[in-house]
Amino acid sequence: MVFLNLKDPFESTISKEISRLQSEMDKLFEKVFGRGLSLFKAHNYPAVNIYHDADNLYITAELPGVSIEDLDISLEENSITIKGEKKSPIKEDVSFHRKERDEGSFNRVITLPVKIDPEKGKAELKNGILTVTLPKAEEAKPKKIEIKIG
Amino acid sequence: MAENILNVKAKQEVEPRAEPTSDKPVFTPPVDIYEEKEALVLLADIPGVGESDLDIHLEENTITLRAKVFDTLKDKEPLLKEYRVGDYYRKFTISNLVDQEKITAQLKDGVLKIVLPKAEIKKPRKVPVTLG
């Protein structure tokens, strides 16, 4: 049939328009949330939050059920590795009525936005929350400059 | 056994029944419930909750779990936010087979464990019928 061979002139314009809109939206999201602040991407375990002030970077992660012996953190000048395992506390064979919690191992490397002093890093695990405090390297700290009146 | 690799699961937010007084989100914690010989055991992941911020309420056949979480770094400037901090709320109905007097709870590494001991099963007995 003739009709079938004819291309709908509108259809192609519409699909082009949609794909253009899509890429525009993507750009907008990137602009608004930034590369780092994306809430929509899948992440490696654990999910982390990173904060900072003039002297330190602070990294927090939710690690319920991970004990200190099963957690391993290593630091480099510009990255942190959080490695460990969440073990099941259930020893014997039991019958589950509900299973929503996951167990398993994890290994995540996070590139840091500024240089840090790896020797002075501190980590604390409390109530299943890991908090790592990383002092910024001297060269990464903000500097004040004096302004002279000319 | 193949090694399990943990993945990040999005936290499940719940709609509070009443208008909340703070802008903090409220999440449903993931739980495991399993049966042992003598008891039912409930495990809940509630990272960030201290002993004093946890409220377990038992009424009739319902256990209500409420937990408050305080964001210690909220005054710092965020650079990356992959998870949100909020309170926890979840409610369970328990069966008559649980001995409510003997329920115990324990908090460790951000995991709450509630042990619900089974009530002793009463022996079946015959009801005598007398002719009046």
User: Strand order within the widest sheet of chain B?
Assistant: 1-2-8-6-5
Structural class of chain B: mainly beta
**What sequence of helices (H) and strands (E) makes up the elements of chain B?**
EEEEEEEEEE
Shape of chain B: elongated
Q: Largest interface, and how many residues on either side?
A: A-B, 47 and 39 residues
**Strand order, biggest sheet of chain A?**
1-2-8-7
Low-confidence parts of chain A, pLDDT < 50 over ≥5 residues? Answer: 1-8, 35-41
List low-pLDDT spans of chain B.
none
What is the CA-CA span between the terminal residues of chain B?
68 Å
User: How is the main sheet of chain B built?
Assistant: 5 strands, mixed
Percentage of residues in helical conformation of chain B: under 10%
Q: Please indicate the percent range of residues of chain A in DSSP E strands (runs of 2 or more).
A: 25-35%
Structure classification of chain A: alpha+beta
Strand segment tally of chain B: 10
Average residue-wise pLDDT of chain A: 82
| CATH-defined fold name of the largest domain in chain A | Immunoglobulin-like
Name the assembly state.
heterodimer
What is the level 1 CATH name of the domain at 23-71 and 81-117 in chain B?
A: Mainly Beta
- Provide the gyration radius of chain A in Å: 25 Å
Distance between the termini of chain A: 83 Å
Textual characterization of the structure:
Chain A has 150 residues and is an alpha+beta fold. Chain A has two domains: 7-40; 48-89 and 103-140, Immunoglobulin-like (Sandwich), CATH 2.60.40.790. In chain A, 19% of the residues lie in helices and 33% in strands. Chain A has a four-stranded antiparallel sheet with strand order 1-2-8-7, with no helix packed on it. Chain A is flat and about 80 Å long. Chain B has 132 residues and is an all-beta fold. Chain B has a domain at 23-71 and 81-117: Immunoglobulin-like. Chain B is 0% helix and 40% strand. Chain B has no helices and ten strands. In chain B, strands 1-2-8-6-5 form a five-stranded mixed sheet, with no helix packed on it. In chain B, strands 3-4-10-9 form a four-stranded antiparallel sheet, with no helix packed on it. In chain B, a hairpin with a 2-residue loop joins strand 5 and strand 6. Chain B is elongated, with a radius of gyration of 20 Å. The termini of chain B are far apart. The model of chain B has no long low-confidence stretch (mean pLDDT 86). Chain A binds chain B through residues 36-37, 39, 42-53, 57-58, 60, 62-67, 86, 89-90, 92, 94-106, 113, 125, 127-129, 131, and chain B through 3-9, 30-36, 40-41, 43, 45-50, 72-73, 76-83, 85, 107, 109-111, 113.
